[in-house]
Design brief:
By secondary structure, the protein is mainly alpha-helical. The protein is built from 9 helices and 2 strands. The protein has a domain of 136 residues: 3-Layer(aba) Sandwich (Rossmann fold).
Length: 206
C-alpha cells in the first residue's frame, strides 16, 4: 500500500487543531471553485499531488478533478478522509504488507509512511525518491515502485525503459478479470446514485 489520505486518513494518530483547520480551509476552497473553468482552485491540490509533473499532466489532472466529483462531494470526501483513523487496527494485520512512500511527498509527510509501516507487524517499507504523491509513469521512482512490487510478489522485474507501457498492459489484463469488472461497475453505479441523491436534495432544498 501507499500511505495516503484515502487509505489511512490524513494522520495515523489524533491530529492537532491546526491540521483540522487546514482541511476545513481546503474544503472551503473546493466548494468555492472546484467546478469552475478556472483551474487555480484545483491547481492548489494538483501542485501537492504531482509537483514535479509537466504542465500538460498537471492540466490533465486539474480537468480530471473537475469532472470526477461535484464541489460538495469533493469537499465531503476530503473531510471524511481527514477524520479517518485506523491506527488501532494496524497491529492486527497478519498478512505480508508492502508500504511505499515518496520521500518528498508534500501531500502526506514521509514520516507518516514510516509510522504506518512500523505499526504493521513485519511490514516492508520502501522509500521512493520523488516529490510526487501520484507517480508519473515515466519518472525513475515508477521503476523503483514496479520493481519493489515485483520483488514483493515474487514476480520478474520489468527490464525495459517503457515501464508505463508494461504497467498499462497489466492494467488492461486486470480489467478483463470478471471480479475487477464487477468492482468497476459497482463503483460506477454507486457514483451515479450519489450524484442523483445530491441532485434530489438540491432540488428539494434539503
Amino acid at each position: 500500500m501507499q500511505a495516503d489520505d484515502r487509505r489511512q486518513g490524513r494522520h495515523l494518530h489524533h491530529r492537532p487543531v491546526p491540521h483540522l483547520s487546514v482541511h476545513r480551509t481546503g474544503a472551503t476552497l473546493i466548494r468555492s471553485g472546484w467546478g469552475s473553468d478556472e483551474e487555480s482552485h484545483r491547481q492548489f491540490f494538483t501542485s501537492q499531488f504531482i509537483p514535479d509533473a509537466d504542465k500538460e499532466l498537471q492540466q490533465s489532472l486539474n480537468e480530471t478533478e473537475r469532472v470526477a466529483a461535484t464541489p460538495d462531494m469533493a469537499a465531503r470526501y476530503l473531510l471524511a478522509n481527514a477524520d479517518a483513523n485506523v491506527s488501532a487496527l494496524l497491529p492486527a494485520i497478519r498478512i505480508p504488507t508492502l508500504v511505499l512512500h515518496a520521500t518528498g511527498d508534500i501531500r502526506v509527510p514521509f514520516a507518516l509512511g514510516q509510522e504506518l509501516a512500523a505499526a504493521i507487524p513485519g511490514a516492508k517499507f520502501v522509500p521512493l525518491k520523488t516529490r510526487n504523491h501520484m507517480l508519473d509513469p515515466n519518472e525513475p521512482a515508477s521503476r523503483d515502485m514496479a520493481n519493489a512490487i515485483a520483488d514483493f510478489l515474487g514476480d520478474k522485474r520489468i527490464h525495459t525503459t517503457a515501464v508505463s507501457t508494461q504497467l498499462e498492459h497489466k492494467a488492461k489484463a486486470l480489467e478483463q478479470h470478471w471480479s475487477i469488472k464487477f468492482v468497476l461497475i459497482f463503483a460506477a453505479i454507486t457514483g451515479s446514485l450519489l450524484f442523483f441523491w445530491e441532485l434530489w436534495k438540491a432540488v428539494h432544498g434539503e
